[in-house]
């Protein structure tokens, strides 16, 4: 079988999950490909259609922000549905979500978003890792390793079910009710996130890593005006967590990386 997964990863959790899944599938003698939906990858509509038509099963890998999908993944699913609707492609689909605190986005919500795409949701899992929001304490490595081990087990179970043609829908439960309430406030908070971002001029080296790595191209730099953060921001925290000097500020506050460690994803 051939599995093709479209994914978005802010600071590494989802990338780790989909890469782990692909490694499991490959070890079982099947083909697995990954496609980042970052703007810089420049996936054309024609290429997306080709990827779907050539695969036996389509995956979506995404983090969950406040009980909801990040804007970049919402936009991609809408685009995918428009691309696939005219050709009436029918494929099995699976979803790999990652989250830090509460698993509050369920398969029912994802099914709604896939309506009209021709993708039938046959498997859905949520993998808990660590939150990528700024913290005053270092990552608990022991807890992260434990969650990664559990994640590998769940991803192996997912692979086995898909290869056997069995459904595996997880993520139902009372936490999705919490998600319904959180989701009402999340879009507004995410939409305003870019307004909270800034640059600490004393520590910024103008390396342009934040500009080049922004998945939505929402950070611009001009020699006269400096850095500008745009509404297209998907609130992924990538610029904040991967700035070499920790120069990205939130709410006008500079957080010394020696005092406020940045989370840069799971490390094997």
Automatic annotation (TrEMBL):
Locate the transmembrane regions by residue number.
none
Gene source species: Acetobacterium paludosum
List, alphabetically, the PROSITE patterns matched.
Answer: 4FE4S_FER_1, 4FE4S_FER_2, FLAVODOXIN_LIKE
* Residue ranges constituting the 4Fe-4S ferredoxin-type domain according to the UniProt record: 195-224, 225-253
Keyword flag Repeat: yes
Q: Which Pfam families match?
A: Fer4_9
Keywords of the record: 4Fe-4S, Electron transport, Iron, Iron-sulfur, Metal-binding, Repeat, Transport
Return the InterPro entries for the record: 4Fe4S_Fe-S-bd, 4Fe4S_Fe_S_CS, EFR1-like, Fe-S_Ferredoxin, Flavodoxin/NO_synth, Flavoprotein-like_sf
Q: What residues does the Flavodoxin-like domain cover?
A: 3-163
Molecular-function GO term, any one: FMN binding
Its name, as the record gives it, is 4Fe-4S dicluster domain-containing protein
């Amino acid at each position: 079988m051939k599995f093709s997964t479209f994914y978005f990863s802010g600071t590494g959790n989802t990338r780790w999950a989909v890469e782990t899944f692909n490694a499991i599938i490959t070890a079982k003698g099947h083909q697995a490909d990954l496609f980042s939906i970052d703007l810089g990858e420049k996936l054309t509509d024609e290429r997306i259609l080709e990827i779907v038509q050539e695969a036996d099963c389509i995956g979506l890998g995404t983090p969950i922000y406040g009980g909801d999908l990040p804007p970049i993944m919402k936009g991609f699913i809408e685009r995918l549905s428009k691309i696939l609707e005219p050709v009436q492609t029918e494929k099995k689909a699976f979803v790999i979500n990652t989250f830090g605190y509460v698993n509050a986005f369920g398969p029912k919500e994802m099914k709604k978003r896939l309506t009209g795409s021709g993708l039938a949701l046959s498997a859905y899992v949520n993998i808990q890792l660590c939150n990528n929001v700024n913290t005053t304490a270092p990552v608990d490595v022991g807890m992260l390793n434990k969650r990664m081990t559990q994640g590998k087990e769940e991803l192996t179970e997912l692979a086995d079910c898909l290869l056997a043609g069995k459904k595996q829908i997880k993520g139902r439960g009372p936490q999705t009710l919490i998600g319904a309430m959180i989701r009402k406030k999340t879009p507004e908070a995410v939409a305003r996130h870019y307004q909270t971002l800034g640059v600490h001029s004393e520590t910024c080296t103008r390396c342009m890593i934040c500009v080049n790595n922004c998945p939505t191209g929402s950070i611009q730099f001009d020699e006269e005006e400096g850095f500008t953060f745009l509404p297209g921001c998907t609130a992924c925290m990538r610029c904040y967590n991967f700035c070499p000097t920790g120069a990205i500020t939130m709410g006008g506050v500079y957080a010394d990386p020696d005092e406020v460690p940045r989370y840069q994803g799971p490390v094997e």
